[in-house]
Specification:
The protein is mostly beta strands. The chain contains 2 helices and 10 strands. A hairpin with a 2-residue loop joins strand 8 and strand 9.
Length: 168
């Protein structure tokens, strides 16, 4: 019972942290860089600077929370041509290995699931301190077609960059 209460408190704490954290992206469309974000997400980071190899990272994103500052485009991205949010409401990530690069950088490997496809990804996480909090920043380039998000397009780039900024 005590563990369940602690888990609920941690979930609430992580949810509150999301307000100070962000998941954004950019992709080229018709030669222009289109920025966007996801406003509804939860992350779980287990990190002790004295035991960095034991770090673990996971998270889920509610795909319907996509925002590119264009309501018509966002609606199109939610439909069956792209994310199919009615069938696949969440994207998720779960780390499988963490390698220490330095006291301010980790290399994280894990499984990224978008729609029905899960792919192994590897990326660097930069660690810093801000106002007494530990901050984790990363940048990850993925190919949207690897996850069957949208089809072939002359105007929309296949590669996009995700940026995560998580404070805890």
């Amino acid at each position: 019972m005590k563990q369940l209460g602690l888990s609920l408190i941690m979930l609430l704490f992580v949810t509150l942290l999301s307000a100070q954290s962000s998941i954004t992206f950019k992709i080229k469309n018709a030669g222009f860089t289109v920025p966007g974000s996801f406003s509804d997400f939860k992350t779980s980071i287990k990190y002790d600077k004295n035991l960095p190899r034991q770090a673990a990272f996971s998270g889920t994103v509610q795909v319907k929370s996509i925002d590119t500052d264009n309501k018509a485009r966002d609606k199109h991205l939610r439909n069956e041509d792209f994310f199919e949010v009615d069938t696949y409401p969440e994207m998720s990530f779960q780390s499988t290995a963490v390698t220490v690069v330095s006291d301010k950088q980790l290399k994280v490997a894990g499984n990224l699931k978008i729609k029905k496809t899960t792919k192994k990804v590897v990326f660097d996480v930069m660690i810093s301190e801000k106002n007494g909090k530990t901050v984790f920043d990363t940048e990850l380039e993925i190919n949207r077609r690897d996850f069957e998000v949208g089809g072939s397009s002359w105007t929309l780039a296949n590669k996009l960059t995700l940026f995560l900024h998580i404070e805890q």
